[in-house]
User: Fold this.
Amino acid sequence: MLNDDIEKVLITEAEIKYKIHELGGIISNEYSGKDLVMVSVLRGGVIFMADLVRSISIPVTIDFMAISSYGPSTDTSGVVRVLKDLEENINDRHVLIVEDIIDTGLTLSYLLRSLKAREPAGLDVCVLLDKSARRIVDLPIKYKGFDVPDVFVVGYGLDYRQKYRNLPYVGILNKSVYEEEWANL
Ligand code: IMP
Assistant:
């Protein structure tokens, strides 16, 4: 699917499919015999989660959280507000957080702290995209899809102003999209 607002496709639909198949196999192996709860963060992580769970061959429970940052995006406190908490009790269970992208790492570091307090048997992270150039807090990433450079990407769950999440690939947004919006302000 071509989209005029996309300057360049960074990761194709086929590459994503292949990687998810690979990750699903590894996760199925490593969590075999364990009570696995996969937790996705709304809204960006949902597309990745939906495809990833279908490549997993062992029993798995899925759950969702919604969070929003407090204050300006430049705030480095990493404090986030929980808009929707888990339905599941994760105590003594093996939790795998499924995220679309890790940028500064602040959101995930808050999430890890908050879920750790509930004393799961295990707490790990699976992320599709790692934008490590902008990392502020170091995080343990157990499963990773792709490294991405320090550019703003959209598609496959990732948005710009709530658009482009439905693109089946990950791409770089055309600068004209921002410029047009700024001109209209
Ligand atoms: P962090 O707390 O800086 O790691 O931010 C992670 C969140 O920022 C992600 O879950 C995304 O919602 C958003 N984000 C970071 N980089 C991008 C990007 O390149 N495109 C779209 N959203 C992004």
In short: The mean pLDDT is 92. The radius of gyration is 17 Å. The helical segments are 13-30, 46-53, 106-116, 175-183. The chain has one domain: 13-149.
